[in-house]
Amino acid sequence: MTERRREMAPSTSNLKQLLKYQSKCLRLEMFDGQGQLVLIVTHFIIKLCSEDDEIIILLKSLEDSAKLCWIYSRHSEEDRKFSTMFWNFITQLKVFFEVPNFKRTANPNEVVAAFVDLLLELLEEILHRRPYFIHGKVEKFIQTLKMELKFLITFLGDTPSQLTELETTKIVLKDIEAVANDVGSFLYSFFLNKDRISIGEMNKSLSDLLRNVELVKESITTHCFTVAHIWSSRMTPKIAVVSLSSVDSILDYIEDRINNDDRIADVKDQIRTIHQNLTNLKNGIKELEIERCQEREEFSMQFFYVAYEVEYIINSFAPVSYVTLRLLQVIEKIKPMRMQLQELKKNDAGMLKDAKYPRKHITLPGQRSLIGEDYLYGFKDAEMEILKSIREEPRQIQVISITGMPGLGKTTLANRLYNNPMIIQHFIRRLWCVVSRTHRRRNMLIDILMSIDIDNKEQFLNMEDEMLVERLYKSLKGRRYIFIMDDIWNVNAWDDIKRCFPDDDNGSRILFTSRNMDVAVMTSYKSRRNYPLRFLVEDESWDLLQQKVFNEEQCPPELVDVGKKIAGNCGGLPITIVMIASVLKNLEKKPSSWMKVAENITSYISKETNEYMSVLEESYNDLPMYLKPCFLYIGVFEKVREIPVKKLIMLWHAEGFIGKVERKSSEDVAQEYLMDLINRSLLLVAKRKSDGRIKSCTIHGAMHDMCSRLAEKDNFVKVITDRLSIYEQHHCLSIRSHSIPSFSRPFGLHIHSLLGHLPDTSAFIFSSLKHLKVLDMSTLDLSLYNLTGIEVLAFLRFLAVSSIPSSIEIFKNLEFLLVDNKEVVEIPVLLSMVKLRHVHFSGGAQFSKYWRQELQDESFQKSNLQNLSSIFIYDENDEKVLRFFPNLRILKCNFTVFLDSSEKCYRYPAFNYLTQVEFLDISFRPCYESDDISLKLISLPLNLRKLTLRYFDLSWMQMKKIGELPNLEVLKLRDDTIEGKQWDTNEGEFIRLRYLELDAVQIEHWNVSDDHFPVLERIVLRSCYLLEEIPYSIGDISRLQKIEVHGCAKSIEDSAVQIQEEQRDLGNDLIVTISGL
Questions:
Q1: pTM of the model
Q2: Looking at residue 164, what DSSP letter applies?
Q3: b/e for 990-1001, b at 16 or more Cβ within 10 A?
Q4: Could you tell me which residue ranges the Disease resistance R13L4/SHOC-2-like LRR domain spans (predicted)?
Q5: In what helix (H) or strand (E) does residue 804 lie, and over which residues does it extend?
Q6: pLDDT, tens digit, 9 for 90 and up, residues 925-964
C-alpha cells in the first residue's frame, strides 16, 4: 500500500469518540462493547478496500455525521440521522463476515488466515468486554473456539507452499475456509444486530461450530499423515545466523514444559527423548574447536532449526494427534545429525579451513587499492608520523599497525609508504604480502618471496614449504628490511611465518594493515605502535569527490551544493566517495539527477559494483559465530543515531546472545563482545563515560546498510516501514512507521523481538507471540489500550513502556524494565520477580504504600535487583524498603532529611548497608527541616567506585569521609557547597580517584598537593564561578592527562594554560580544553 493511499484512508476518530461516550447521542449499542466490534471490522475493511468502494464512501459519511453529533445537542436531528446511518452501515458489513476475495498477497493461505485473525480479534474483544450474556457455558465455548481458530492459523502458516497444489491439501483448505465463514456468520448474526440475544440459540450455534471444527481437525491430521514424507514446515524459521547461547534458553524452556505443562502429558516421553538428544548435540558442538569452519556453522544452524521446531510445536495450539506427527518428524531429523557430529569430530579443523579457502592468485603491492595512489588528503599527518616512527625509533624489530574500517584507505597508505623514496633508501629489503581473511601459510611465503624476486615465480611454486622458509630467512639475515602484511585479520597469520624474520637489532620493521585493532597488540614484540585512520572531514570528502568526478576541472556552480551533500552523505569513508564518484561520472550533470543519488547513496553504489559490498561483508564473515547475532541486532537501531550501550547490552542479554564464561559475569562478557566489535571496526565509539567505559556507540552508514541487508536476508531482523504480514518470518521486527496499513496482525511463535515506533497494540496478537523476549512499547500510552493476551508473554525478558502495566508481576522471567514516565509513579511490588535485575524510571518513582505495609516482616523475600533508578526516599520506611535490595550495584535516588523515630532526630538516609553498591548517584531535595539543624554525615557504602552528589552542603568532615573511600574512582560534585567555600585535601585521600568533576560547586579556594590524588587522570571544572584558580600542584600528578574548563572565570582558564605550559616544558603531554557553556 502506497504512502498516498495511507494518507487518503478514512478517519474513524469521531466515530470512535462518539461510540465511547454514548451519552452524547441516542442509545446505539444493544450491549456494552458492540460499537467496538463495529470499529474492529471497520479497520479491517479500510485495509481491504480502496477509497472509491461503496462501503468506504458510506464510512466517510458516517464519520462526518459523527462529527456533527458532537456539535449539536442530544436527541437532535443529527443524532437521529446518525443512528439510521449507523445501523445501515452495520447491515452493509454482513458481506465482510466471510473470507474476502483478496489477491494482493504471495501466500495463498494468508487471505484465509487474515480473516480468521479478524474473527480472533472480535472474540478477544467479546471476552474482554464480557457483555451480560457471556458467562457459564457460553464463555467456555467462546474460549474453546478462540483456541481452535489459533490452531487453524498455525496450520495455514505451517503448510508448505508446494503442498497447496495437491488435491488433498486443497480440500482441507476449503474445509478451513468453510468453517471460518461459519464462524463469521455466527458472529455477525449474534453480535451485530438489533434483536435480543437468545443464550439458548447461541449455545446451540457454538456447539455446532465446535463440532464442525473437530471434523476439520480430524481431516487435517489425516492429511498430514498422508503427506508426511514431503512435509517441510514453513513456520520453522530459516535464520542464517545462530547463537548457541540462544539454544540454551530453548532447551531450558522445553525442560520446563516437560515438568510443568499438563497439556503435553500424552507426548512427554517423546519430548523428553528429543530434549536429551538435543542436549547431547549441543554439548558435542561446543566441544568442536573449528570455530569459523563452514561445516560447523552449517551444522549449528541445522541444530538450531530443529530445537526451535520443537519449541514451536509445543506451543502451536495444536491437537495431540498433530503434535505427535510433528514430533515424529523431528525425531527423524535428529537421527542423521548424530552421525554428522561424529564426522565433524573426526576431521581436522585446520584441514577443513584450508580446504574451504584456497588462495588462487598472488597479489602484489598496489593491486588492491580501490581509492588510488594519487589521493592523500586524509593521510598526510599519518604518513609523516609513521615515517618518523619507522626511521627513528628503536633498533629492535617494531610492529606498526594501520587500522580502521574497510574503505578508509589502509592499503593506499601502505602502498605509499612502501614506495616512498625515504623507505626505499633506508631499507635494503622491502617485502609485501596480502594476507586476506582465509590465509594459507604457503601462499603467503610465495607472495613474500615474489615481492623481492618476481622472476623466480615458477621456482618458488615448486619448492617445499620448509625450503621457502629457509630461502626467505637467509635473504633477510643481517639486512635491514620492512615487511608489509596487508589486510591481516588475526595474529595467527603472523605467527605462521614470524620465524622467517630475523631480529638483528638493525631497525627492521613489520607493518600491518588491519580492520582489527587487536592484531598488533597480540604479537609477542614489546615495541608496538598503532595508527588508527580517521574518517575524512567534510572539506576533504568534497575535495576527493571533485577530484574523482572532474579530474583537474572545477565543479559547475549549479552542482556544488548537491555535490557537497553527496560527499557528506558518504560519511567520510573514502571508498564510498570513490564508488559514488564513478556513478556520477556516468550520470548527466544536472542537479535533479545528482539529488536522486544524494538521497540513496548505497542503492546507486550496489547497482554499480558488487565489490563495494563484498569488501564490507568480509568483516561480517570473519566474525565468530557467537558475535554474528550481536552485530546483526544493531539493525534494530535507526541509521546515524547514537546507540546507548547500556540498552544494547540489555537487549543482547534478553535475547540470550551472551554466553556463559567461567569466572566472568555476564556483564563482563557482554562488554568483551562490544569491545571485540569495536576493535574489528564494525562499531565506532561515540561517547565515553567518566570512568573511560563506553557510553554510546555508532555504526557507519555503509556498515549499517550492510548490517540491515544481511539481517533481513538471513531472516534475523526486518525493518517495517509499510506493511506487516500475518506470517512474518523474522526473529526481530523493528517498526519504523507510526501507522501500519497491514492486512492482518502478525501471528507467529518465531518472533522474539518487537521494537521501534509500535502502532497501537491492536496491531499485535500478544497471545500468539508467546515467545517474545523483547517488547518495546515506550512510544505508546498503555492506559489507552486493551492489552488482551499480554499476560501469556512468559518469556519476556526486556520490557520498555511509558507506564507500568497493572499486572507487571506476571512476567516471571523479566530481567529489564524501562519506564519512560513523565511524572513520578509508584513502584509496584517487584520482589516476586526473582529474575528482575534492572529497573529504570525516567521521571522518577516512589515506593507504594503496599511496600511499606508488607515489608515490615524481615523474613520477606529479598530481591535480586542490581540496578535501580531513579527513586525518591521520603522517610525511614522507604529506607527500610531499600534493605530488601541487598544485591544492588547501581542506585540513583533523590532524598530529603527525615525524622528518625527511634533517635528522635533528623538525618539523611543510610546507605552503608548496601554493601554491593558500586555506583551511587544522589540528589538532595532541601526542605525546611534541614535549614536549621545539624545533620550527621551521609553513611556511604565502602565498595563505591563512582559517586555523584547534587545540591548538598558538604562539611569538611564529609569530604574527608568521601576521600577515604578505598575504591572510589569517579567523583562528581554538582551544585554543591563545601563548608567555608574552601577544600583542603589531605595525604591518603582519594588514592584511587581517576576522574574528578566539579560542576557549579560553591568553592573559592582549593588547596591540594600532588600526592593527594596519586592516580588522577582527568579533571573537569564547569561553572565554578567562585574558584580563583586551579592549584598549580595539580600539574605534578604523574598520571594527569587532561584538564577541562567550561564556563569558568578567566583566572581559572589562565591557571589551566599555565599548568599545561609548565608540563610541556617538562616533556609531558597534558591536554587542556577550554570553552564557554
A1: 0.82
A2: G
A3: bbebbbbbbbbb
A4: 764-1053
A5: none
A6: 876 555 555 566 778 999 999 999 999 888 888 899 999 9
